[in-house]
Amino acid sequence: MELDRLRSAVEGRTPGIQDARGEFAVLLALARCPEGYSLLYEVRSDNIDRQPGEVCFPGGAMEPGETPLECALRETREELGIGEDMVDVFGPLDIFHPPCGIVIRPFLSVLRPGALETMQPCPAEVKETFLVPLSELEHPFEYRYPAHRQLGEDFPYDMVGIKKDYGWQPISEELVVYRHDGHTIWGFTALMTRAFMKLRRECLGQEGSL
Q1: What are the phi and psi torsion angles at 2 (to 5°)?
Q2: Cα(25)–Cα(105) distance, rounded to whole angstroms?
Q3: How far apart are alpha carbons 158 and 116 in whole angstroms?
Q4: What domains can you pick out in the chain, each with its CATH number?
Q5: Which helix (H) or strand (E) holds 203?
Q6: Is 80 exceeded by the pLDDT of residue 210?
Q7: Which of 36, 113, 117, 197 has its CA 20 to 30 A from that of 19?
Q8: What is the pTM of this model?
Q9: What is the mean pLDDT of residues 93-116?
Q10: Dihedral sign computed on CA atoms, order 138, 112, 57, 118
Q11: Residue 195's closest CA among 4, 10, 15, 26?
């Protein structure tokens, strides 16, 4: 009986992401500019609780019953006043699952003509917006550094069956930074930007352009 219940629970189940503490969705929105296609970024309001003044993509936490794409489009509408009818969604990019346990689902899109002119950022959430030509996102600053496991004196070595000098596999973290016109793009936003730019190079080739 137990196996039957397990089978019923798993058959046809849509898998989630193990140990995810929260799910978010963001929109990477391309816009046609005189300099070529550019990515749209926000600067978060100085008055919000989480990461005030930092650069991000439009997006936020998924609400119950909401799909990731619905979330990304809703947040874009609420934060920037850009309606779904002004966004042409290409599709999902790679899921981002950083060590802190959250899950971010990015979507690539292009803004339709007139979208930027009708944009009305919500002052409570967005301090300003800016565009960065893709040509200026090719070469970020990258810095990799070791991340050390800090085990307390109460770590149960005996229970686990290892010694204090156990040879842990080395781990590292990476800082990625873009600079544009006085703005600093770093953290998760920079990592997702770099992942998109890598995909772009793979699709278009080193000499390709949009």
Answers
A1: -65, -45
A2: 5
A3: 61
A4: 19-204 (3.90.79.10)
A5: helix 187-204
A6: no
A7: 197
A8: 0.89
A9: 94
A10: positive
A11: 26
9 phi/psi in degrees, rounded to 5: -75, -30
| C-beta separation of 142 from 71 below 8 A | no
What tokens appear for 181 in the block? 């016109």
pLDDT class for 56, splitting at 50, 70, 90? very high
Average pLDDT over all residues of the chain: 93
Nearest residue to 22 (alpha-carbon basis) of 120, 118, 100: 100
Name the residue type at position 68.
P
The confidence score (pLDDT) of residue 78 equals: 97
Asked if residues 3 and 32 have their Cβ atoms less than 8 Å apart, the reply is no
CA angle 60/135/78 to nearest 5° reads 20
Question: Which 3 state secondary structure label does DSSP give 1?
Answer: coil
pLDDT of residue 206: 54
pLDDT in tens, 162-186: 999 898 898 898 999 999 999 999 9
Angle CA(141)–CA(146)–CA(151) in degrees, nearest 5?
A: 145
Residue 78 phi, psi dihedral angles, 5° rounding: -70, -35
